[in-house]
């Protein structure tokens, strides 16, 4: 499937790298460290089941949902595919 100077399987390698980057990014955004009993933004109690499911969580569901709506993506293609250069 690869053409030109790319080696055979280059497209699959790029897909694999893109997925791996996405997984690493999601893992990096998971809470780490010591969690809190109360939300650091609004002061409401964080339910015990949420603290058990996400060790290290510091926000309640409502505040985390608001944060998640404002996630920014860089849209930078580090691999420099030809498709991104044509846009």
From TrEMBL:
InterPro entries: Znf_DskA_TraR. Keywords: Metal-binding, Zinc, Zinc-finger. A zinc finger (dksA C4-type) spans 39-63. One of its GO terms (molecular function) is zinc ion binding. Residues 35-68 form the Zinc finger DksA/TraR C4-type domain. SUPFAM superfamilies: Glucocorticoid receptor-like (DNA-binding domain) (SSF57716). PROSITE patterns: ZF_DKSA_2. One of its GO terms (biological process) is positive regulation of secondary metabolite biosynthetic process. It holds the Pfam family zf-dskA_traR. This is DksA/TraR family C4-type zinc finger protein.
């Amino acid at each position: 499937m690869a053409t030109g100077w790319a080696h055979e399987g280059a497209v699959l390698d790029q897909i694999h790298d893109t997925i791996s980057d996405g997984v690493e990014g999601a893992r990096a955004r998971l809470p780490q460290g010591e969690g809190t009993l109360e939300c650091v933004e609004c002061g409401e109690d964080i339910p015990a089941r949420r603290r058990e499911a996400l060790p290290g969580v510091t926000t309640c569901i409502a505040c985390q949902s608001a944060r998640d709506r404002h996630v920014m993506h860089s849209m930078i293609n580090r691999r420099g595919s030809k498709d991104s250069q044509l846009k």
